[in-house]
Amino acid sequence: MEVSSPIIEKRIVIEGIAVIGRYLPGLLQALLTNVQLLLALLAVGFAIGTVVALLQVYAGHFLGVPAFLYEWVFRSIPALVLLFLFYFGPLQFGVSIPPFFAATLALGFRSSAYQSQIFRGAIQAIPQGQMMAARSMGMSRVRAIISIILPQAFRLSLPAWSNEFSSVVKDTTLAYAVGLNEILRHARFITERYYNLAMLAYLTIALIFLVLTYSGNWSLGWLEKRLRIPGLEMAGVSGRGRNLSK
Amino acid sequence: MKRKLVISMVVLAMVALGGGGLAVAQETYTVVSDIPWPPFEMELEGEFFGFDLDVIRASAVVAGFKVDIQNCEWSILVSSVQAGAKDIGASGLTDFRERAEKVDFSNHYWLANQAVVIRKDSGLNLVSAMTGKGPTGAVGAQRATTGGWWVEDNIQAAGFNVELKQYSTYPLAILDLVAGRIDAVIQDEPASISSLTAFPDELTIAGIINTNEYFGFIVPKGDPNGLLPRINDAMVVLGVKTAMASTGVEEFEITEGSFWENLVATYFGPPIEKIEAAWSKCKNLLLSATCLEDLENYARCMADAVKE
Q1: Whole-number pLDDT of residue A230
Q2: Which residue in B75, B84, B272 is closest to A179 by CB distance?
Q3: Domain end (from B169, B190, B212)
Q4: How crowded is residue A23: how many other Cβ atoms within 10 Å of its Cβ?
């Protein structure tokens, strides 16, 4: 297909950067919505994910099977379909859920299914002997899970969890589809006012997310180092930070 | 003397209470609009304006209520008013039967026809572009808009082999047209004219299709807040009356020198930069308006400023 004239010229790029600069404060303000959604969905995912993981590891069939079903359902449905289900589904019955709330639930449930698998793996990585030792000291099973198993499991989870973090950071832009006024939708103020700046506007957003994901992962890496489990037996498991620094 | 004092104090108290009561009685209604869609919906430095939004703001001043304008994605706009989550929709909404079954419309305030935009160098005309005779055989439109439905109902249904490509926003369709992936874009006339200013050398309007579509403001079915009569009366005060012409087409009678006439002169014709500059200059007159005179001063200020 022949293009009638070059859309991108040097002059346009220079003028375009100036225009984007004018819109940058607004874009960053809209990014706050993404960050709020990120925190909300991670919180939902963390809370439910932990419960699901514990049920899968420790519960009998009665609670274990629903936990497996839950994880299977929310890991199988595309994020966009979940968003539409949570937003447009209730609307069919005259119930209007605010886009932020619908997105928090849809993406939060989805993330909880992924997080549950991270936590399950970590819980199962804690040597069985620890539970036996705790029990033999007179601790109840629940007490042992709360005081012995989970504190270690969460620390072991951090590398995998930071991967889930990088994944859901970007998912927050999907909430655009249910009308959340987040950064991608805000970019329309640029792209529909200056048609030829679409590329530059989306590149700016890409850059913003590069920075956001990098700083998030850096913070989690720092946390991982700080919370590293000391001791001979655990050193190999979460010693990435130390090995790199030596 | 003492008695007089008491009476005057009582009167004062009543005035104070009454005044306070009035201020509280100014209810605030949420208005949803899919911004931006110049010249009906526009944004500058975080503030929303444009023909629809100025009219709904002015109507609120005349009718004595307050509005909270919220930016709302097109795909969920009508349904959120329908569900009663939002009070008013002001977003260049065409009044047609299927939509009027979901929500109630105010009196019409704008007649929109569909414009067909093509590439200047394509050698096509209105008919050949719309019937799929161009190099791609495809026409673009924004998803869930009357332009796309018109192509389905009148061109495809008539047996012409034309592909309809639907986009989530109008500018995406225009960009595809410039890049040569479609032959034409169909969209309401004022928005089409405003898109030409971005590509004056590449694009042109092949023609206008008279679809006789009317814009109105929407409220939930049954008008639970009783807003429609107040908005309708306010629009008459602002200078526009609808009348049915003998041809069966609804016509707008616009009062000379009114708010309405100046607002139309501001938003329909001048380039976007001029409108933005005018808004920067005059916006305080509208945002602080309390009476019709303030509103008329605003519209006059805008109409004068775009000529500068």
Answers
A1: 77
A2: B75
A3: B212
A4: 21
Pair B234, B296 in one domain? yes
Q: What percentage of chain A has pLDDT greater than the value 90?
A: 75
Distance CA B144, CA B36 (A): 17
Task: For residue B252, tell me if it sits in a domain.
Answer: yes
Residues from B in contact with A at Cβ < 8 Å: 35-38, 43, 45-46, 71-73, 75-77, 79-80, 82-85, 119, 121, 169-171, 174-175, 178-181, 195, 198-199, 201-202, 272
Which of A113, A101, A125, A127 shows the shortest CA–CA distance to A40?
A: A101
Of B190, B212, B234, the position where a domain reaches its end is: B212
Looking at residue B233, which CATH number applies to its domain? 3.40.190.10
b/e B195-204 (16+ beta carbons within 10 angstroms → b): beebbeebbe
Nearest residue on chain B to A21, judged by CA atoms?
B45
Domains with residue ranges and CATH for chain A: 10-245 (1.10.3720.10)
Identify which of A102, A181, A182, A94 has the alpha carbon closest to the alpha carbon of residue B81.
A94
So what's the pLDDT on residue A14? 84
Q: How far is A198 from chain B (nearest CA, A)?
A: 9
The answer to whether A5 contacts B202, with C-beta atoms less than 8 Å apart, is: yes
- Checking if the pLDDT of A173 tops 90, the result is yes
Q: Do A1 and B76 touch (CB under 8 A)?
A: no
d(CA B254, nearest CA chain A) in Å: 30
Res A244: pLDDT: 42
* Nearest in space to B211 (alpha carbons), one of B149, B166, B253, B268: B149
Query: Tokens standing for A115?
Result: 């997080």
Taking only the tens place, the pLDDT of each residue in A100-115 is 999 999 999 999 999 9
Burial of B156 (0-12, 13-18, 19+ CB in 10 A): middle
Is B184's pLDDT higher than 90?
yes
Please name the residue of chain B whose CA is at the shortest distance from the CA of residue A187: B36
Alpha carbon B26 to chain centroid, angstroms = 24
Section B15-39 average pLDDT: 74
Largest distance between two CA atoms of chain A: 80
Residue B176's domain comprises 112-212
Compare all CA atoms of chain B with the CA of A3 and give the residue at the minimum distance.
Answer: B179
Distance from CA of A31 to the nearest CA of B (A): 14
pLDDT in tens, A17-76: 999 999 999 999 999 999 999 999 999 999 999 999 999 999 988 999 999 999 999 999
User: What confidence tier does B247 reach under pLDDT thresholds 50, 70, 90?
Assistant: confident
DSSP assignment letter at B37: B
Each residue's pLDDT tens digit, B146-180: 999 999 999 999 999 999 999 988 888 999 999 99
Nearest C-alpha of chain B: how many angstroms from A84? Answer: 11
Q: How many CB pairs under 8 A join A and B?
A: 76
pTM of the model: 0.81
**A192/B37 touch (CB, cutoff 8 Å), yes or no:** yes
How high does pLDDT run on average in chain A? 89
Cβ separation of B198 and A194 shorter than 8 Å?
yes
**Shared-domain flag, residues B220 and B207:** no
Instruction: Supply the ipTM of this predicted assembly.
Output: 0.76
| B198 and B256 together in one domain | no
Q: Tell me, what's the pLDDT at B243?
A: 81
Q: Nearest CB to B199: which of A95, A177, A195? A: A195
